[in-house]
Design brief:
alpha/beta; Rossmann fold; seven-stranded parallel β-sheet; 7 strands; globular; binds NADP nicotinamide-adenine-dinucleotide phosphate
Length: 250
Amino acid sequence: MRTVVVGASSGIGRCIGIGLGRRGARVALLARRLERLERAAREAGSDALAIPCDVTDPGSCRTAIDAAASELGGIDALVYAPAIGPLARLVDLDADTWRRAFDTNVIGAALVTAAAVPHLSAAEGRAVYLSSVSASLTPPWPGLGAYVVSKAALDKLVDAWRAEHADIGFTRLVVGDTGGGTGDSQTEFAAGWDPKLSAELGPIWFQRGLLSGSLMDVADLVEIVHAVLRTGPSASLPSVVITPRARKAR
Ligand SMILES: NC(=O)c1ccc[n+]([C@@H]2O[C@H](COP(=O)([O-])OP(=O)(O)OC[C@H]3O[C@@H](n4cnc5c(N)ncnc54)[C@H](OP(=O)(O)O)[C@@H]3O)[C@@H](O)[C@H]2O)c1
């Protein structure tokens, strides 16, 4: 399976890229930090590729996907993981922050997909987009407005692609809380958050039942992505949901 994983330099995307590579996929790992990608590629397998890509730059999206398709000899599967989640109350969100969130979380997904569609179509392939329970299932989380609004737009984008390209399997993968893996594979999602605001909002998220306190093992998430990508072309998987399960104390 010739697979492109975008957002593979940290967190869940890195776990998916390495996990798919170790399960026999030929993977091209894309993100901005090339050194990180090269380390991930070494873990993913001897034929894994590291290709720089900034999804907020249209030229970079096209060049990176073209390079991946050329090196892999086509593309059977695409996984889109990049997202930013700026922490700010809506009254404090400036236009640049809104734009950055939409550029990364939505428009980047559209541009990468547009570049990959001819290859995915030729292969009757699949594309998976990481969405979030906070956009698809729960009420919005206070302080994460730009994130949940842009992820909701991503959900619609996946449907819009399916409406125009029914020959490709487009899946929205709705993900609950996970810390990712360890080391470089840890999630960096909250890295830039203001600790003071975070400490104010955390209890509200708990009170409203948005944050359960349980974290899902990222290995289970990788299994699901692998299963979705291996599903044959007769089946459509518009939406898949994976959330943490409360476990008995051990
Ligand atoms: N962690 C969770 O519990 C959770 C829950 C629900 C959904 N999700 C979703 O899972 C996905 C991954 O989240 P994560 O927690 O693993 O986050 P993360 O550790 O922050 O990873 C984000 C990835 O996106 C890449 N990225 C960011 N901006 C980019 C850009 N302009 N161009 C190219 N790549 C870019 C980053 O690489 P570079 O900085 O090197 O470019 C990095 O590889 C996101 O879509 C998130 O919404 C996560």
